[in-house]
Each structure stands twice: as structure tokens, then as C-alpha cells.
Amino acid sequence: MRRAVLWTLGVLLMGAMWSTAQVRRTNAPQPARNIILIGWDGAQREHVRECLKRGELPNLARLIQEGKIVAIDILRTTDTKAGWTQILTGYEPEKTGVFSNRRYQPIPKGYTVFERLEQHFGPDNIATVAIIGKKGNVDADPPTKVLAAPIEQRARQGRAQAQQRLRQGRIVVENGVRYLVEPGKPYYHARQIMDVFVNGLMRDDVVGARTLEMLERYRNQRFFFFVHFAEVDHQGHQYGENSKEYKDALISGDRWLGRIVQKLKELNLYDRTLIYVTADHGFDEGMKTHSDAPYVFLATSDKGIVRRGMREDIAPTILERFGLDLRRIRPPLDGHPLTRPYNPPLW
Ligand SMILES: [Zn+2]
User: Fold this and answer.
1) In angstroms, what is the span from residue 79 Cα to ligand 1's centroid?
2) Co-location of 177 and 196 in the same domain
3) Claim to verify: residue 282 and residue 302 sit in the same structural domain
4) What is the pTM (predicted TM-score) of this model?
5) Span from the CA of 280 to the centroid of ligand 1 (angstroms)
6) Domain check: are 132 and 232 in the same one?
């Protein structure tokens, strides 16, 4: 009798443990060995939605089937410098100093996902790689010092760009000569500790091919890749958001997503790699601009995403997936991981 009771209790206990494990398997963070964050610069949420509906983005559709797609909204400037900085740091511009393409500084040392991962795992235990289509607004150039006179002259003639450079930089006088010292670009500090930072590749085919190469190179190591495709934004500026060219660029991004997934499968890494696809800003409906384009998305193979969010929520999501304790990050992140409900007080 007693034995039967014990046996029953044992079965119940094991059942409870098993179901807890099941719950854990579905809801709790799946720790990732590797993450690839893919950027489709300037991909408007609604346009992506329409392409998905028409079956034009089969690889994105497959990713979403495995994981999720959620809306990402933007409250700050809808441009490239502001966008990727927020996505790759988890901070508002007040903490990074990167407000827009024109108003920026190097992101303070240590604030990017790349640097946090290098610090957390140790430089030999993770490869941090950025392969970037754009040159101008996703870059790492150091501060520069140039003769001020020609720029001051252009500014006096009313040239906006020269006026902006003067506002942004500072004048120093050496031996009676005036120089303009201009700030370094956003990834100036990050680049110094990253394994790979290449930008200005322009074409999707070049970005994609380089990505496959780098996956080969770092296959035996833990890695975080940021892969930035620029053609959607470029075609949007040239032909407009509703053009065939804009749509074809989204399809090109999708094709490369498929090739990256294929490569991961060939290398036996797909099971240990999470993929996120997002955009820095959308596009003004039917226009060649994105001055008020706050609607983007996050598509991912990560099953644990439970809510929509903001641009700054993406970095904490990635850091948490790599096992970092977000509460220990200083200054505190402005974003919150998309793996948990977030209900801030109303007041
Ligand atoms: Zn643009």
C-alpha cells in the first residue's frame, strides 16, 4: 500500500517536472550560440506586408513560420544613423549622441551590442562582424581636422551642409590657422574591438557574398553578424516607395536571406543560430523620402518573441539571447527585450 502511494507520488512528480520542462522549452529564452541581425535599410512595414501577401518574399515567410513577425514603431528620427544606432545599442539618442544623419558623434565606448558581446565572452570567444552596404551613415571613420576657411566661406554663401558641419564640429586655432575638428562616426570606438567591420559595399550581391565568406571563416566560433543591405533604401530614394525597383530590392534582400539560411544549414549551424531581420526606418508612402516613416518590423526565427516594440528593444532582445544579465548593463538600457510583456506605468 505504502509502496503504491510512493509510486503514484513519484509518477505525479515526474509528470509535473516534465510539463515544467515543456513550458520552459516553449516560453523561456532559448539561449543562442550565434545571432545574425540582417538589416533591410528603408524597408517600409506596409510594403513588406503586401509583398508577403503576394508570396514575393518566400524566405522571409519561412522564417516567420518558424518564429514571428512583429511591428516595430519609431518615435525618434526616421533615418539611417539614428536607426541603426538605436537598434545596435538599445539606447535613446540622449545617451549615444546620435540623433540623426546630421547630428551625431561616435557612440560612447562600450555601448554597442558588438562591444558588449566582446566584453561578456572575451575577445577570443566571439566573432563580431559587420558587413555593411552603406558608406556614409553606417561608418566608423575617426575624427578629422580640416582647414576651416573654405568651409566657413561656403557656410557664408548659405550652403546648408557647410553650416551643419560648422555646428557639428569645433574650431581650433593652431599657429594662427583655423581648423575645423569634426567628430568621428558612430562606430568609431566599436570598430576598434570588432573582428570585422566593412562598409560601403553598396550592392546587395557584394554584401551577401561577403557574408557567406565570413560565415565560412567563423564557422567554428561563436558569432554575432550584422549584415546590412542598402538597396531598398537606395532604390526608394531614386525611384520612389511604390516603384518596381523598390519592390525588386526587397526581393533581392529576401533572396539573400535564403542564401544565408542555406549556408547556415550546410555548415550545420542553423539550429544554433537565430536570425533577425529588421529596418532602420520605413519610407514615406509613395515618396522618395523617409522624413516621417516610423513603421517597420522585426521578422525572426526566434520563437520567444511575444510582443511588438520599439527600435531600441532589439538590442536588449539580442543581448538577452546571448545570456547577458540586462540588469547589470550601465547605463541602464532604454529598450526592453521583446521576449517578455512590457507594461510601463501609464504615468
Ligand atoms: Zn535613406
Assistant:
1) 6
2) no
3) yes
4) 0.88
5) 9
6) yes
Cβ–Cβ under 8 Å, residues 40 and 63 = no
Question: Are residues 119 and 201 located together in one domain of the fold?
Answer: yes
CATH number of the domain where residue 120 is located: 3.40.720.10
Could you please report the per-residue DSSP string of 62-86?
Answer: HHHHHSEEEEEE--S--SHHHHHHH
Cα(326) to centroid of ligand 1, in Å?
32
The 10s digit of each residue's pLDDT in 247-304 is 999 999 999 999 999 999 999 999 999 999 999 999 999 999 999 999 999 999 999 9
3-state class of 226 per DSSP?
A: strand
Residue 1 counted as domain residue: no
Ligand 1: distance of its center to the CA of 278 in Å?
15
- 170 and 319 in a single domain? The answer is no
What is the 341 CA–ligand 1 centroid distance (Å)? 32
Digit-coded pLDDT (tens) for 11-47: 555 555 555 444 444 445 557 899 999 999 999 999 9
For residue 151, the enclosing domain spans: 144-181
Task: Output the nine-digit C-alpha cell for 37.
Answer: 541581425
| Å from CA of 266 to ligand 1 middle | 34
Q: How far is the CA of 8 from the centre of ligand 1 (A)?
A: 65
CA of 197 to the centre of ligand 1 (A): 21
Q: How far is CA 266 from CA 71, 169, 219, in A?
A: 31, 48, 11
Interval between CA 313 and ligand 1 midpoint (Å): 22
Separation CA 13–CA 174 (nearest Å): 78
From ligand 1's centre to the CA of 78, what distance in Å? 9
Q: Within a domain: residue 216?
A: no
